[in-house]
Write a structure and sequence with these properties.
Shape: globular
Distance between the termini: 50 Å
Strand order of the largest sheet: 3-4-6-7-8-9-12-13
Number of helices: 12
Largest sheet: 8 strands, parallel, barrel
Structural class: alpha/beta
Helix content: 40-55%
Radius of gyration: 23 Å
Number of strands: 13
Order of helices and strands: EEEHEEHHEHEHEHEEEHEHEHHHH
Length: 337
């Protein structure tokens, strides 16, 4: 039997399959099924500072809605305040206490002090690690990219200093030089990188002429950018690498491991295929390893990374060059007319 165990951010996992942050954690029966299927670790859905602030503001508006109508109604409601992150923290703690696999908390904050405060509170729940989501949607032309990166690096340093548990950073690919930024974070002591975050993008309803935010699952082949960076990072940073985004089959998982990832995160594939997807992937991975003669993941992890390839430019070559040079072969397979 192949050994599927791996290490991620110093955590010992029985296999490389990690449930990414999602609302699946809201359903105890699903978590039980995922545990039974063999999931290696679970990332609890993100604590969003913006959501807490919005809910608090909405509550305040509702409590004071009638104050200006009648003088005698100024105290119609008792003194109340929003519970803040307490419910979220309670739910994280409950999941940790009722599962046997490592639990990783996820955090999205705004201000440096908030990042640190919430990170400390999440650590108190007993989670095994923390995943912080760095993102920036610049709304002003005057903001320079270097300033955004410097601020994010400072946030990471502050969080690392504030907690003792391992800290991973979930990144977007939208940096001028993503590798350079990852290297700076690695030097700052980050324990792991999750590549890459998938943001909900706005769309427009042309009939209502309104913005809306469709909830779309990842699609096949969405993993290719993560595959490229897993191959580039392997052997070049101290932190662990977790590949994410559009991993929808056992073949995709094997590809990520060959490129150099330590673990992979899956969400959309479980929504589509239910928890038995996890067991199938693990069985397929084990069977593939047996067929290839691999006893452990380390026997082939990073085998096709840039570091280990004879062609060092495979991960950097502009892909359209190959298509242009071999256009006759391409058009035979995909005729245009």
């Amino acid at each position: 039997m192949a050994d599927l165990s791996t290490t991620y951010m110093g955590l010992k996992l029985k296999n490389p399959l990690v449930l990414g942050a999602s609302n699946l954690v809201n359903k105890p029966e699903v978590i039980q099924q995922l545990e039974k299927a063999g999931i290696g670790a679970i990332v609890y859905k993100s604590l969003f500072e913006e959501q807490i602030q919005l809910e608090s503001a909405q509550l305040d508006d509702e409590l004071h809605e009638y104050e200006e109508r009648h003088a005698e109604m100024t105290s119609i409601f008792p003194d109340m305040e929003h519970a803040g992150p307490k419910e979220h923290l309670f739910n994280v703690k409950t999941l940790k206490e009722n599962t046997t696999v490592p639990i990783i908390a996820s955090l999205n904050a705004i201000y440096e002090t908030s990042w640190v405060e919430y990170a400390k509170e999440l650590e108190k729940t007993g989670v095994d690690a923390l995943e912080i989501n760095l993102y920036a949607t610049p709304g002003y032309f005057e903001v320079a990219g270097a300033g955004i990166e410097d601020k994010q690096i400072q946030i990471v340093k502050s969080v690392k200093k504030a907690v003792k548990i391992p800290v991973s950073v979930k990144l977007s690919p939208f940096y001028t030089n993503t590798l350079n930024f990852i290297k700076k974070l690695d030097e700052a002591g980050v324990d792991g990188f999750v590549i890459f975050n998938r943001f909900f993008q706005p769309d427009i309803d042309i009939e209502k002429e309104l913005f809306h935010y469709p909830w779309d699952l990842s699609q096949e082949k969405d993993f290719q950018l993560s595959l490229r960076y897993a191959g580039l990072l392997y052997g070049n940073i101290d932190a662990s690498v977790c590949a994410s985004r559009g991993i929808s089959s056992s073949e995709d998982v094997i590809k990520m491991l060959l490129a150099g990832a330590d673990v992979v995160q899956v969400v959309s594939a479980i929504y589509r295929n239910q928890p038995p997807f996890v067991e199938k992937v693990l069985n397929d991975l084990s069977a593939w390893m047996d067929k290839k003669g691999y006893k452990s993941l380390d026997d082939f992890r990073g085998k096709l990374s840039r570091k280990n390839l004879k062609d060092p430019f495979a991960y950097q070559r502009a892909q359209y060059v190959d298509i242009l040079m071999k256009s006759e072969e391409v058009f035979k397979k995909y005729p245009m007319v």
